[in-house]
């Protein structure tokens, strides 16, 4: 069918022939049939003798070598004995639900939830022992350059006037928390040469910053960090004196905040405390 013209020479009313329209519809339907069907992500359900269950996605499982190895051999007779009639894979000691739960919350990319989701009444050391038992790898922030320091201390948004203009800086608190959590975990794995005074002093500065900025590093984060420091870090007498006040505040167990996120959107006032190098 040719295009139909109106009385005005410039106005053209285009019409698609009916047989072409039907053909195009059939092609669209064929293309839709060829599209891959989306399926929900594969999950595995694990249970505990205490009655709880957890669902673990395939992405999370790939971050947990111990469990991934078990599931890759699930048809082995030895492993089949721990799968019940409902398809739930039963776990026993040393894997406990209360310590596995915050680990799962932190995977794959939010290590800050290791400390943000673990209640103060639970042992951070037992959680980190399970973390090791499951063979989970954690990033080790370098203390050899300024990048780790810059990320962890980037907690204050501000406006700067430079070159005749106003430049706005938006703090990246999520990166600050995640890098700080990886740093604290690395301390427990002895990843830093703390006998090197230069490295130890950098670690001290970061610890002091974490403990003295409660609006960014919330109650649980600082509580568990303070416990880790008591066990794994030894500084000079002057540095220990500077840390003691912040540690005693952080170790207050009376209040326990479930969320590790900011509640009011305000930022820290920049107070750090004093730094002292090793004597």
Radius of gyration (Å): 28 Å
Total helix count?
Answer: 12
Order of strands, main sheet, comes to 4-3-5
Shape: globular
> How much strand content do the residues show?
5-15%
N- and C-termini, Cα separation? 94 Å
Helix content, binned percent: 40-55%
Low-confidence stretches: 1-9, 260-279
The total strand number stands at 7
Summarize the biggest pleated sheet. Answer: 3 strands, mixed
Reading the helices and strands in chain order gives EEHEEHHHEHHHHEEHHHH
Mean pLDDT: 81
| SSE-based structural type | mainly alpha
TL;DR?
This protein is mostly helical and 279 residues long.
Would you mind describing this structure in some detail?
There is one protein chain. By secondary structure, the protein is mostly helical. It has helices at 18-34, 58-61, 65-72, 77-80, 97-106, 112-116, 124-133, 147-152, 173-188, 197-211, 219-232, 237-250; strands at residues 4-5, 12-13, 43-48, 53-57, 89-91, 158-162, 165-169. The strands form three sheets. A three-stranded mixed sheet has the order 4-3-5. The radius of gyration is 28 Å and the shape is globular. Mean pLDDT is 81; it is low at 1-9 and 260-279.
Secondary structure layout:
Layout: E1 4-5, E2 12-13, H1 18-34, E3 43-48, E4 53-57, H2 58-61, H3 65-72, H4 77-80, E5 89-91, H5 97-106, H6 112-116, H7 124-133, H8 147-152, E6 158-162, E7 165-169, H9 173-188, H10 197-211, H11 219-232, H12 237-250
Parallel strand pairs: 3-5
Antiparallel strand pairs: 1-2, 3-4, 6-7
Helix pairs in contact: 5-7, 9-11, 10-12
